[in-house]
Amino acid sequence: MGFGPFLLLATLEGTVMAAVLALSAVGLSLTFGVMRVVNVAHGEFFMLGAVLSWAVSLYAPNPVLAFALALVLVPLAVGGLAALADAAVLKRLNYDPEATIVATIGLSYILQQAALTFFGPDARPVEAPFSLRLQFPWFGYSGYKLFVVLAAAAILLAVWTFLRRSRAGLVMRATQVDRNTARAFGIDVDRVYMGTFALGAALAALGAVLIVPIQQAHYLMGHDPLLLSFIVVIIGGLGSIRGTLVAALLIGLSDGIISMFFSPTLAKIIATLAVALVLVFRPQGLFGERA
Amino acid sequence: MKALALHIAVIAGLWLLHGLLPAYHHGNMARIMVLAVFAMGYNIAFGYTGLLSLGHALFLAAGMYAMGLGAQHFGTGALPGLILGTLAGGGIAGLVGLLALRTAGVSFMIVTLMFAQAGYLTLLYFGAVTGGDEGFPLPAAARILAGLDLTQDGPRYLVALALFSVGLMAQLALVQSRFGRVMVAMRENEDRSRMLGYNPFRVKLTALILSGLYAGAAGAAYGLLFGYVGASFATIQFSILPMLYVLLGGAGTTLGPLLGAVLMFYLIDTASTHSSAHLLVIGVALLVLVLFAPKGLLGTLRDRGIRWLP
Amino acid sequence: MAAMILEAQGLARAFGGLRAVDGVDFALRAGEIHALIGPNGAGKTTFVSLLSGRQRADAGTIRFDGADITRLPAHDRVARGIAYTFQITSIYAGLDVFANLALAVQRQRGADLAADVRAAAARVGLQDHLATRAGELSYGHQRLLEVGMGLALQPRLLILDEPTQGLAAAEIAGFIALIRSLVPATTVLLIEHNMEVVMDLAQRITVLNFGKVLATGSPEEIRANPAVQAAYLGTPDA
């Protein structure tokens, strides 16, 4: 296989990664933007999404139904769990930035333990809902992977419309700008926070439902999505959805390409260092406006 | 005076335990004392200076690998290895601090986390030299310190105790010194401290380097005493552990790191012998501490009347 | 003419479109007590923040004791002898009074820290509260501690931002006596709303309005200045 087809393959893989990453990162970005909370347990919500989809697949009669059920039930379950965590822990800490980081670290350990105890230590494969294969002149490519990209794009479009067009979205954006003023205008800030935290977690879970037929479910799988979501959110500019999307594409593609031509580890080293340097020298992110 | 006596009593108590403890707990205590040195370093940064770092595993690993690679490739002895490791921990902490201390609060946490992660990945990337996650065993020849064979239980305990004692007394002297007071001042009110003429960046950098020296010494000692060097010590888990020890024992108390290390070690140990629930123990401990006892055991005790506790 | 200890020229600082300090020329004579007055929002606190280095000037120069300090960070200016006390009390609420004062006293590298701290506490009448946690002091005592920390730096220029705010009448009288005892060894620049304190203490007064200097002069000159009366004390014919 020549360089061109190889690059095409790397770009395809990168795009799939970028799509799922965008879902998870937008979730993280929302919680940070609206609540000023850095949610370290975000990767665990992703992991739960994958593990729960595997659990759903055990009870469903066929892969298509399993996928459809998971797409609906898993985000609801994970979102509900997040809402519970918000009420039981984050709210009591008054959303103090440093304390919530420590608390969400604690939460991530508990969620890992729960997944380990209930679903075991093994990696669990989930069958894709369909197994179409697209034949390029040089290699065949999974049709499901391209479906993932389209589905992620559709979900992101829906989220964007929700934020821009709906009343709930308006209330969230108002709270993001100034929580005290929002409260003065009669907005129930506690409920907005709970909803935002749940929505952020549900988006991570959705990403996981989409990816789990490609990548197996495992109780420690939340680590990489967390790290990469962090990287995307910070490089894109904390709390900026548009920046997050651009950064997801950038990181997903460059990760795919560097991973294929050099090594996945090198790609991650470069990305983590980039994040640290962006935070130090350009805290508003590469695409954010200076405050 | 009371504080000094208390610290000497603690060290004497640990020395007495050397003769009393059954083998299993004897081995555990040696491990705990080294981890407590690591936690004391974390305490200097977080407890006293208010620098909440998520990257101390990097400084621990720097000390461990500086010692281990030296022994492996250049045949450095145990004592030079320990010194090398201590300096490596401080040096890396200084480099990270030069950049990370331009940020504060949440950004500082994420920047230190990212640097530590990059360090861990770098250890994996150069797996041919570092052994990656598998690590490599330290040759027995490298584990002779001043004639003491560190593969033996007795010398191992005593060396751990010696390192711990030096660390503890140095920490006490530090926090009772004028500079120690300035560290606390940065934690309490950075703006006021600047207007008293203290350079916040320089104070915090110094504290972070001191903290890194402790972490580096602990890393090198851990490798020497237990004969193993590996990249797993650079993972985020080893950044969270000292935070957990310090939060439990009491941030900003000299004896908190030891108390937290002992309690947490045995809590995790008990949980993992009876079940596989050690993740749960760590998670619940973090949540409970941050929700209900943010000052930890000794910090709460100090608030409730024992004001002289340093 | 007395020697100038501090001179500012063309000092400016804007926040967005608002010119908080707009081309101010200003000079302090060594050893004087100088008051800075003006209506709320006139730029007084911003102006002294530029002098103390808590904020960077957009334009202009500041000379202290002959040296250009415009680019020096705040802590270096403090080391050169410019002390600043905060308008909103800024002390170490979690530490005891001794530690609060010691942090200021130990800048001087004296031999006996404990004795020097006791002396610093006695100057502001807090000698009986050394073991009290600063956050537990009464508001008036916290203000005095704030001033005491500034004094303990043994500054050559002491900048006080609304020092008498919230003090009882008896405490104000003690405060006035304390400030008077500082000069001429120390130069004092004082932002103050209480006109009785200003007229009692100040040898010279500068009036700021909309970020610009409206007038500078002795208390009598300021009192008689029609522009000041119009802008600040009310319209002359009222």
UniProtKB/TrEMBL annotation, chain A:
PANTHER family to which the protein is assigned, alphabetical: AMINO ACID ABC TRANSPORTER PERMEASE PROTEIN, BRANCHED-CHAIN AMINO ACID TRANSPORT SYSTEM PERMEASE PROTEIN LIVH
Organism in which the protein naturally occurs: Gemmobacter denitrificans
Keywords: Amino-acid transport, Cell membrane, Membrane, Transmembrane, Transmembrane helix, Transport
Membrane topology field: Multi-pass membrane protein
Family: Belongs to the binding-protein-dependent transport system permease family. LivHM subfamily.
Keyword match Glycosyltransferase: no
Short name of any one Pfam family annotated for the protein: BPD_transp_2
Transmembrane segments: 6-28, 40-60, 66-89, 101-121, 141-163, 192-214, 226-253, 260-281
The protein's name in its UniProt record: Branched-chain amino acid ABC transporter permease
Keyword Transmembrane: yes
InterPro entries assigned: ABC_transp_permease (IPR001851), BCAA_transport_permease (IPR052157)
Automatic annotation (TrEMBL), chain B:
Keyword Transmembrane helix included in the entry's annotation: yes
TM region(s), chain numbering: 29-51, 81-101, 108-128, 157-175, 245-267, 279-298
Xref: CDD domains: TM_PBP1_LivM_like
Signal peptide: none
Locations listed in the record: Cell membrane
Keywords: Cell membrane, Membrane, Transmembrane, Transmembrane helix
Membrane topology (UniProt): Multi-pass membrane protein
Name under which the protein is recorded: Branched-chain amino acid ABC transporter permease
InterPro entries: ABC_transp_permease, LivM-like
One Pfam family in the UniProt entry: BPD_transp_2
